[in-house]
């Protein structure tokens, strides 16, 4: 509870700082919505051309895409500053975090709130809300609870991956290429059923980079398409819990790797 109170205080200060530049914030949000809209428009063109994708009609693809984007938005708002860890370390700013009586990880993620990610929030949740009305899912309290858990779990998976990459920065100083590679993988394949990919790619996106657990597995369970899975349905259904496990392990690694940090001397 103490950590949560500290996070709320620091995040509130960062939020007030970002909110001072309202015009710039508005442009960032519009840009984020436009960027995600272009990504879905490409998928829409593909579906218009071929009718379905691996047997998934447009409504179900939109639902999958919306889940992936909403989970990403939940991750990006509080954890977006992890993308700047390279600069924080190389510029020596991390020194200050070590001498303050606050968890260094909390200080990193609240150093700045990247409110441009609100474009992802707006686009993702709008698309998900529309698509949820088009798919053959009985929206009972249980299915709604599972969807919420899946979105939170997907966000924690992405947060876990980026925390692991950030931990490597204490050794490597620059992890930009690895971060961009991972983000591109998640973005490129986020809106497509993994069943369209070769077996080797499906394995890599399940057990090496756990992309499948972010949106594909939960969407497949909700849509009743578990017969298309290459893994046991029970494993796919447990996707929301995977995020909590991965993020906990990533935090442990992050704090272990702090011992490898060497001040730049600035």
Summary?
The chain is mostly helical and 266 residues long.
Multimeric state? single chain
Mean residue pLDDT: 84
Separation of termini? 34 Å
CA gyration radius, whole angstroms: 19 Å
Poorly predicted regions = none
By DSSP (H or I, 4+ residues per run), the number of helices equals: 13
What spatial form do the alpha-carbon principal axes imply?
Answer: globular
Structural class: mainly alpha
How many beta-strand runs? 0
Strand residues, percent: under 5%
The topology string of helices and strands comes to HHHHHHHHHHHHH
Main β-sheet: number of strands, strand sense, barrel status?
A: none
What features would you describe in this structure?
The protein is 71% helix and 0% strand. The chain is mainly alpha-helical and 266 residues long.
Blueprint of the fold:
Layout: H1 2-18, H2 22-50, H3 58-79, H4 85-90, H5 94-99, H6 104-109, H7 118-132, H8 141-172, H9 176-189, H10 199-208, H11 216-222, H12 233-237, H13 239-257
Helix pairs in contact: 2-3, 2-7, 3-7, 3-8, 8-13
Keywords for this entry:
266 residues, mainly alpha, globular
């Amino acid at each position: 509870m103490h950590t949560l109170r500290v996070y709320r205080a620091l995040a509130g200060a960062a939020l007030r700082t970002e909110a001072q530049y309202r015009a710039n914030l508005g442009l960032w949000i519009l840009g984020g919505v436009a960027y995600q809209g272009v990504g879905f428009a490409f998928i829409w063109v593909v579906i218009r051309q071929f009718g379905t994708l691996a047997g998934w009609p447009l409504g179900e693809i939109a639902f999958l895409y919306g889940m992936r984007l909403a989970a990403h938005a939940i991750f990006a708002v509080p954890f977006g500053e992890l993308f700047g860890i390279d600069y924080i370390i190389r510029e020596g700013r991390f020194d200050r975090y070590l001498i303050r009586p606050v968890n260094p990880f909390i200080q990193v993620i609240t150093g700045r709130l990247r409110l441009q990610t609100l474009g992802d929030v707006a686009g993702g949740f709008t698309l998900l809300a529309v698509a949820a009305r088009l798919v053959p899912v009985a929206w009972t309290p249980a299915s709604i609870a599972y969807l919420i858990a899946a979105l939170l779990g997907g966000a924690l998976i992405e947060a876990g991956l980026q925390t692991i990459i950030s931990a490597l920065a204490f050794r490597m100083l620059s992890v930009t290429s690895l971060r961009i590679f991972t983000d591109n993988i998640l973005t490129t394949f986020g809106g497509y059923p993994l069943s369209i990919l070769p077996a080797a790619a499906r394995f890599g996106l399940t057990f090496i980079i756990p992309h499948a657990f972010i949106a594909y597995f939960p969407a497949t369970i909700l849509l009743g398409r578990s017969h298309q899975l290459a893994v046991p349905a029970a494993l796919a259904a447990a996707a929301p819990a995977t995020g909590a496990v991965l993020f906990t392990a990533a935090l442990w690694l992050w704090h272990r790797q702090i011992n490898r940090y060497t001040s730049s001397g600035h």
